[in-house]
Design a protein that fits this description.
Elements lengths: L3 H16 L4 E10 L5 E12 L5 E10 L1 H23 L5 E4 L4 E4 L1 H8 L6 E2 L1 H8 L5 H14 L20
Antiparallel strand pairs: 1-2, 2-3, 4-5, 5-6
Length: 171
Amino acid sequence: MIHKEDQDRVLGEIMRNRMSTETRAEYKNFRLVKKDGTVVRVNASAIFLRDASGKALRSLAIVRNVNEAYLSEERLRKSNERYQLAAKASFDMLWEIDFSTNKYIVSEEALLRLFGYQSSGVWSPQTIRQILIHPDDQEAIHYFEQNCYFKREELFHYPIHRHLRKDGSIA
């Protein structure tokens, strides 16, 4: 049985598809209630068999249980929300290096809050070094990054170094 909170949406979609001339339909992310009361998330794919005038004679459907995938995505979404809140409350600059494009993906909020820069959130290593890294530390950071790049390490810790804020002060 379709969960009561999803019935209007799903039954409405089924009726619209039945009344149309479409022969295929997809029904995404709705809940079914099993006999024992357990609720599961499902997706359904249907085909409509029609007569020569296009009237739906019957439909055949396949229902796929996507409960585990949905629950995993929900846990990931909640984890990402907690991570974002922790990153906002932190006095640290968190970033990711995309080795395939050789770009840094930085937190725009942290970049503005900690260093005074507004950005699209994607910086090249050269820009990071020229703008954010203290001139006396740039060579050491460049050497460190090159070693990490060639080793393809997944997690590494930068050596202690100084950052420059937009106003010229040292962070």
